[in-house]
Amino acid sequence: MAHVVVAAVLAMAAAAAMVSASPAEGVQPLSKIAIHKATVELHGSAYVRATPALLGDQGEDTVWVTVKYGWENPSSDDWIAVFSPADFISGSCPNPRRNADEPGLCTAPIKYQYANYSANYRYWGKGTIRFQIINQRSDFSFALFTGGFENPKLVAVSKPVAFKNPKAPVFPRLAQGKTHDEMTVTWTSGYDIDEAYPLVEWGMVAPGGGVRNPTRTPAGTLTFNRGSMCGEPARTVGWRDPGFIHTAFMRDLWPNKEYTYKIGHELSDGTMVWGKSYTFRAPPTPGQNSLQRIIIFGDMGKAERDGSNEFANYQPGSLNTTDTLVKDLDNYDIVFHIGDMPYANGYLSQWDQFTAQVAPISARKPYMVASGNHERDWPNTGGFFDVKDSGGECGVPAETMYYYPAENRANFWYKVDYGMFRFCVVDTGHDWREGTPQHKFIEECLSTVDRKHQPWLIFAAHRVLGYSSNAWYAAEGSFEEPEGRESLQKLWQRYRVDMAFFGHVHNYERTCPLYQSQCVTGERSHYSGTMSGTIFVVAGGGGSHLSSYTTAIPRWSVFRDQDYGFVKLTAFNHSSLLFEYKKSSDGNVYDSFTIDRDYRDVLSCVHDSCLPTTLAL
Fold first, then answer.
1. DSSP three-state, residue 362
2. Which one of 47, 292, 555, 575 has the minimum C-beta count within 10 Å?
């Protein structure tokens, strides 16, 4: 018997390892560079020139820089890198050098492009590339390397270029607070608290225009250092100073009213440094009967509009998803990004790149996030999965760069009441099984919602704790994470969860209403009356490289799409909801269903949903 138990445990461990590793098929582009092996061999015939030297002189936080370069020995594997800070050669280097006399490079670039991206380079030994640069609190330089990525040799460096104010507040991220009448705004700057005081100026938009009773609210300030990272590359070549992250709370908001705000800092001499002005609409009160529209997706990642860093085809759909959501900004109210945000994987500069990419959304709409394996997972750090998917970040950047209304920010689980919706957001980087703090939270979140006023109950997590016919899950025969739904399906059924959303698998899939792997109805597009099971949705096609399915389609799989996209939920009232899956490429609907029901349908008993009753009179 003992041998059987041991074998079962080993099999489960192997399955967990396979499932955990499978989504990492793409390669973080910056990890392809053996920067620890780089040598500095500046050559007299080589040059790099970047213009303009002054960036953002009109207050811009994103600009284009033209880089001209050349040398007498061009090669097809030469490449141009962007470094920040600009002085990336001198200073203490944590990487081992091959000999004492050899200069070493101790930081990875923030982006790069092959030199022959410019058509003339291979033949004429000179070329021109345009890079998109965002304000990242320091200056920049551009470097020409030969020797490819495996044996890079630095042959030329440009003079530094810099933003007019590198410390300026940038890239605001809204999030709903712990109560419905609270909106938080988080942003990044180069100002520590002893240099400038962070604040947000905000107020309700008056009916005739202008701002009613503008208020200034102070912000808290956080940061982290190299020692906060748990492993390589985050502690070594991937490290970059994150600056300072500020969060302010705008409280006592009137439901559905429009507000305007701008982030800023008061310098010691009283001078104000302001960011851009934005507007947002305050959340509805819990149970409020109004039109409410939700966006849900996972695994978006980031991409570069200048074409750099894209040789690994790592997140090819990311910009499509972002741009489609920006174009449709007036037609939804709140966003849930359920894990795997930038896929920085220990290259900290990529967090700035990601916040810049989604800023047109997050500055206007609450941008609620969940923790994914590429944010949290690292061995021996208290997580549930002992894998290296976070590149040594072990959750620190995600837990600092974004606000979410958790009781303990190190435990990435929380609830959100948004009008007629209750969202229970779960952290699959921590144990969710019975007897754990997270399992207790899940039951409390599901059991404390008043369904007559908040009829739409949504469960969301990163790893698939429900159902997916993804190829690697199917190979293990589980169609889920190991022990994914075993401790949860009775809770979903007892508390009548409408839908459970997951990412991690980079595609789209919707199931029938399910309980214990069985469809409880044959309906596919319209559900009415008593809901006898939960609909499970994989919405992991936000932008990262796509995942394949098993060839045999399970009976519970209603719709599958191996493409990039997101889900939109529209609650018209307490009885009617529309579900839509839209592709990122065109924003059109490719799968949908409706739900029509009354409160009594939520109360109706189905298998395992009600406690025993008495026959007493």
1. helix
2. 555
Q: Which domains does the chain have, with CATH numbers?
A: 35-163 (2.60.40.1930), 291-603 (3.60.21.10)
The encoded tokens of residue 586 equal: 């065109």
**Tokens (6 digits) for 285:** 């009160």
Please answer whether residues 233 and 391 qualify as being in contact, where contact means their C-beta atoms are separated by less than 8 angstroms.
Answer: yes
Give Cβ neighbours of residue 481 (< 8 Å, ≥ 6 apart).
16, 19, 428, 463, 464, 465, 473
Tell me if 424 sits within 8 A of 442, measured CB to CB.
yes
Residues 6+ apart with CB under 8 A from 335: 294, 295, 296, 325, 361, 362, 365, 366, 367, 368
Residue corresponding to tokens 């040059």: 47
**Would you say 279 and 205 are in contact if contact means Cβ atoms under 8 Å apart?**
yes
pLDDT digits (tens, 9 = 90+) for 553-606: 999 999 999 999 999 999 999 999 999 999 999 999 999 999 999 999 999 999
DSSP sequence for 74-89: --TT-EEEEESSS--S
Could you tell me the pTM of the whole model? 0.94
DSSP 8-class letter at 90: S
List the one residue out of 212, 333, 206, 202 whose CA is nearest residue 260: 202
Residue type, 276: K
pLDDT digits 0-9 by tens, 584-595:
999 999 999 999
Strand 170-176 and strand 183-189: pairing? Answer: antiparallel
Kindly list the distances between the CA atom of residue 238 and the CA atoms of 3, 80, 95, 188, 259, in Å, as whole numbers in the listed order. Answer: 44, 18, 11, 19, 38
Find out whether 180 and 286 touch, Cβ atoms under 8 Å.
Answer: yes
Chain centroid to Cα 394, Å, comes to 15
**What is d(CA 587, CA 235) in angstroms, rounded to the nearest whole number?**
40
Partners of 162 in beta bridges = 54
CA dihedral 517, 520, 524, 529 (to 10 degrees): -140
